[in-house]
């Protein structure tokens, strides 16, 4: 009887830890803030975003007033997230199923938020300049 009670407690503990881990990865995904996807290359900042069944990270934080490249990465993406639209800079393009596509963005003012989306407006991503 004692062993049964102990193993029940064990199962509950493991279950709790599993749920907590799922919850924190969900929050990370939603905030997108903990992912460092902005690097500098030859005086330009490069923002890397992966497209496949949506965009990751959904929110990127970048520096204002410097030339910027958005590097869209795909690996076996055959869904509509390979069709990318960024209305405020007049960008519209198709990503290859696998590869990298650089989108050049002029320097943005602090406080600007670029909105990107798939061709149907179903998947979205944001780049906040500050
Ligand atoms: Cu779509």
Distance between the termini: 61 Å
Spans where pLDDT lies below 50 across 5 or more residues: 8-14, 16-34
Tally of contiguous helical segments: 1
**Portion in beta strands:** 35-45%
Strands, count: 10
- Give the ordered list of helices and strands: HEEEEEEEEEE
Backbone structural class: alpha+beta
- How much helical structure, as a percent, in the residues? 10-25%
Quaternary structure = single chain
Give the count of structural domains: 2
- CATH class assignment of the largest domain: Mainly Beta
Query: How many strands, which pairing sense, and closed or not: the largest β-sheet?
Result: 5 strands, mixed
- Average per-residue pLDDT, rounded, comes to 84
